[in-house]
Amino acid sequence: MTDAPSGQNVKLQSADDKDFEVSVEVASMSVTIKNMLEDLSPDSDTPIPLPNVSGKILEKVIDYCKYHYEHPTPSSDDKKDAGEKRTDDIIPWDQDFCKVDQATLFELILAANYLDIKPLLDLTCKTVANMIKGKTPEEIRKTFNIKNDFTPEEEEQVRKENEWCEER
Of 69, 87, 135, 145, whose CB is crowded by the most CB atoms within 10 A? Predict the structure, then answer.
């Protein structure tokens, strides 16, 4: 656990009342937390409540933020591929970070969205996109345990309407 040079820490409190102490710089990777910090007095010892994030997920989010604060990724590719989102450019550390069960992955997506941590949201969504890529609708339903509630007639209608997007 490396502290930021300023050494100033902030306490974050999860939905299940677990407290985590992190450097202001790491916590500020979340736009939501950064905005909350601006509203607090600098010497406030009050934990920042995060009612939408469990302790288990907040711990993973903090791990992600610490790693990426200490190992910033160059953002030169952002401008080059402005119109194109890639799903095959995930660094090994991030790939390992996302090797979690589906429930945890989806909770990470919700937390990244709530905390407004765009790189984490992009990473978790890319991971889900990679889980879907190249699969048939039936395989996707099986992967994500989705019940098919279409009648055969409705399913055929959807297939006809979306023929244009099928790979031939």
Answer: 69
